[in-house]
Amino acid sequence: MVRKLLLTVLLVALTIMSSSCLELEMGGGGSQFTGAKGEVKIMTLDPGHFHAALVQKVMYDQVSPTVYVYAPKGPDVVDHLKRIEGFNTRSDNPTDWREVVYTGDDFLEKMLAERPGNVVVLSGNNKKKTRYIKACVDAGLNVFADKPMCITPEDFELLKEAFVSAKEHGVLIYDIMTERSEITTILQKELSQVKGVFGKLQKGTPDDPAVVQESVHHFFKYVSGNPIKRPGWYFDTTQQGEGIVDVTTHLVDLAMWGALPGEVIDYADDIEILKTKRWPTMITLEQYQKVTRLDDFPPYLKERLDDNGVLPCYANGETTYSAKGINMRVSVTWNYQAPEGTKDTHYSIMKGSKCSLVVRQGAEQNYRTELYVEPVEGIRAGVFAKSLVKAVDKLQGKYPGVKLDKLNGAWHIEIPDKYRIGHEAHFGEVTKRYLQYLVDGKLPNWEEPNMIAKYYTNTTALKMASEK
Length: 468
Description:
Largest sheet: 9 strands, mixed
Shape: globular
Strand content: 15-25%
Strand order of the largest sheet: 10-11-12-7-13-14-15-17-16
CATH architecture of the largest domain: 2-Layer Sandwich
Structural class: alpha/beta
C-alpha cells in the first residue's frame, strides 16, 4: 500500500515537472526571462532604417552588450554599424555595444540556424518585414519591430498568422510605438480620464470626428545633428509602404490608445473604414540624390517617373474611420524639406462633452508640442476652472512642475523641459516597457488585438484608397 502511494506521488510529481518545463519552454504559465543582467540577447536583422540603431542609443542592464547583426552586404548595414559606433564613441554617456556581424545572402537562414540571441530587432525594408516576423516567431524568437509591421492587405493576413504562431511558441511580438512616450500625448490622455474636466468622449461624425491625429514630416532633415541618409528603396512605396500605412501607424495607435484606453478592440466588429484618400509628393532627381547620396534613381523607380523625370511618391494619406462607434480621422503629409526655421509638426484633438484637449506644434508654439484645454461653449466657467485646477494639482504628483496658464478663454498646460526628452530618447522608453513584458511573459491583454486592429485599419484604408 505504501509502495503504491509512493509510486502515485512520484508519477504526479513527474507530471507536474514535465508540464512546468513544457510551459516554460513554450512561454505558458511563466517567462524564460527574470530581469537578470544581460539575459536579453539582441539579434538585429537586416537593419535598413535608422530606428534600428536608436534602440541601442542607451544601454540596458537586462540586455547583453553583445549584439548579433545578420544582414545582406551593402550600405544599409554599413550605415547601421556607423550609427552604433557613433553612440559608442560619443563624449556624453557613451555606450559599450559590441557588434558581431554576419553578412551574406543567407543572413536570415544563418540567424535562424545559429540563434545566438532571443530577441530580434527589426527596422528596415517594410516589404520584407512581415515575412521576417513570421519566420522569427516560428523559430521561437521574440520580436521587437519598428512600425509598420505590415504594409499590404496580404501581409496583414500573414501578420495575423504570426500572432497565432507567437502564442503557440510562447514568444512576444511588439511594435515600437514611441509616440505614447511623448509628454503632451501622455497628459492629453490623463486629462481625458478626468470626468470633471473632459466629461464624456463625443462620438463625432465622419465630417467632424471626435478624435483627429495629423502629422507633417519631411524626407530631408537632421537626426542626432547629422543630415539624414535614407536608403534608395525608401522612396519605393512597395518597399517602404505608402503614407497611409506607414506613419499613420502611430496616428491610429494614438487615437485608439488615448480615446479607448485599456479597451480590447476587435477589428472585425469594432472598426469601420468610412473615407480614405492618398496623394503623392513629387521628388526630383536632385532631391533624391541629396537624401540618399546616390547618383540616380534605380530602375524600379525610373519606370514610375513622369514625363518631366519626377517621381510621384505616394507618401501622403488620410483615413476617416470609426472605432467602437467613435469617429476618428488620421492624416499624414510628407514634404521634401521643411522651410527654413520650421520643423515636423503634429496636431491632435480629443473632443469631450466639457472640453477639447488639443495638441499643437506650429509656428506659434515654436515647433514644440503644447497642450491646450478648450472648454466647450456654454460650460460654467467657474465650475470648470475649479475641476481643471484640481486635476492639474493631482497630475503634479506624477509630473512635478506641470502648471496651468489661462489663455483667452482657454487654458495652456505648461510642461517643464525635463519631460521633453525627444523622439530619439523615446526608443529607450519603449524598449524598457518591452523588457518588462518579457519578464511578465505577456503583453497587456488589449495590446495584441489592438495591434491587429491598427494594421487592419491601415491596410484596409490603403486598399480602399487605391481602388478609387
